[in-house]
Design brief:
By secondary structure, the chain is of the alpha+beta class. Helix content is 32%, strand content 24%. The strands form 3 sheets. Strands 4, 5, 6, 7, 8, 9, 12 and 13 form an 8-stranded mixed beta sheet that branches. It has a 3-stranded antiparallel beta sheet with strand order 1-3-2. It has a two-stranded antiparallel ribbon with strand order 10-11. Helix 1 runs antiparallel to helix 6. The relative contact order is 0.11.
Amino acid sequence: MKLKRVHEFAILNYLLENETININLAKKQILKYQEKVEEDTIYHSFRYLAYEFFDSSQIAKYEKLVYLKEDTLYKTSSFEKILEDKKLKQYIKYSIEYAVLLYEKEFGKKYYGIPFLKLYEKYNMKNIALLCNLDKIHSSFRGSGQLKYKNDYFLFINLDKQNAIKSKRYHNTFLSKDTLTWQTKPNATQDKGDGEKLIENKKHKVKLHIFVRKFISVDKKTQGFIYLGVANTISYKGEKPINLTLQLEKQLDEQLYDEFTLSV
């Protein structure tokens, strides 16, 4: 999966040649690759690089490169030692530059807001914690087809029924270029909690972000979900689970619609 947020790589690239970086310096670096940047997101990047959102197993697995003090990142002694090896430093620099080059090819310099999502780009669930500035341990941000943060709900929809686990063979299908069906978690009810917000999303000012993939895997390789933008619930029925009919704010073009609906 390609780079989805350029901030961390811009910051690390600067630290290859400098001892520290603060919010203002980071902003200048990131603006080389993005037309607009928010200080809250920069600080979130600082915290992410300092492993504040990592669980204990991730902290044990990865070498810590920086630490955060107030609004400034400092290189760790282990990172300094790594950079003493000129060949290794050059390899790191080339890797960062290549990742950023691919990012620029996909996103240009456009700013997509928070969550930072580009229409028809591919994502996985792990990307979303970073792209919505989740302020808790990211590995806790899990869901069975549904994630949420504040008033943003992220619905991950599989169309492939053949290869899905039997208990998860929901009736997800496109009815037209802008309308599809989706089934909630098995315990959802219409009168409370997420179920209530899903069926009356406009009333509760909840944004439903739709991610769809046709096949769970191809040649044993897990496939990403294509982001289709925001949808609204136009009808629903049943409970535990609730069956929703969703209408996309932007309808699919012919090619993408065929990709999702035609049999191979």
